[in-house]
Amino acid sequence: MNGVHTAAARPLTQRFRHFLAAVGPGLVVMLADTETGSVIASAQSGARWGLRMLPLLLLLIPLLYLAQELTIRLALGTGKGYGELVLRRFGRAASWISTATLLISCFGALLTQLSGLAGIGEMLGVPPWQSVSLLALLIFLMVATGSYRSVERVAIALGVFELAFLAEAWLARPEPAVLLAQLHHLPWRDHDFLYLAAANIGTCIMPWTIFYQQSALLDKGLGQADLKAARLDTLLGAALCQLITAAILIAAAQAFGGGHGGQSLDSVVQLADGFSRLLGPVYGRLLFALALAGGALVAAARGGPGAAQLPRLGAPL
């Protein structure tokens, strides 16, 4: 009887181990997606418009998954990175354009992360030039000395701090009646509302996420046998990413307007002050700093080894 139970349990155990071996690229890219720009966009949406943007953030889960699921099939089906596929299919000109787009996107994102982390350092009394210099050194050391697996482990460990946003949303305790009332009066013709909606969409799906995940899957040595595990990894990551983003919006709506909105945010310090209203001046600032730093550091870490697998543009087609 015990042998029957053991035999029945073995395939499930093997599948679970197989999933754990494949998990990582999708989770890391989604945790990095909740970086400083995403936090600011969702917090501004909550402070300005209350809970009106909440359905949009949740509707982005399937769109985010679909975009990255295509990346999974391209990587595991061809065994090549996105940049190399563009080079082989469309030629050097298209490859140069896509690579330049990636570099510009990554440079802008890195500046955003450094500015957010500098704001956190400023909250703690550290001059911006010191915090930025230290972070730049740490990123350089990670890129120069780390392997993909070490970067992945560091990124996931840092991303755990982002769960603090879920705790802040829970403590905010939004009222369902307020959400329903606001959903009945959506300002579709207001340019500010549409601008913030576009900003939330733009911080959700970005060029580097496609480059990163496709190359990360290959760097980890995954193949077509890992397709289901990679899909589940990405689905869980997409859901977690947008739930964290939604939690930021809920907490900001409650902190800055009691769920009714109407305020605007301009700085990381102002954000921290608002979130400290939910948990107190000490724990509120600490949790906000850890959560924001977690997302920003993951976004910076995903620029480590194998982040893009840029094509060799001088190589023959």
What is this structure's SSE topology?
Blueprint: H1 2-22, H2 25-33, H3 36-49, H4 54-78, H5 82-90, H6 92-123, H7 128-145, H8 148-159, H9 164-172, H10 176-183, H11 191-202, H12 207-219, H13 227-257, H14 268-279, H15 281-301
Helix pairs in contact: 1-13, 2-8, 2-12, 2-13, 2-15, 3-11, 3-13, 4-12, 4-13, 5-6, 6-7, 6-15, 8-15, 9-13, 13-14, 14-15
Walk me through this protein's architecture:
By secondary structure, the chain is mostly helical. The chain has 15 helices and no strands. The protein has one domain (21-301): Hydantoin permease (Orthogonal Bundle), CATH 1.10.4160. Helix 2 (25-33) packs antiparallel against helix 12, helix 5 packs antiparallel against helix 6 (92-123) and helix 6 packs antiparallel against helix 15 (281-301). The chain is 78% helix and 0% strand.
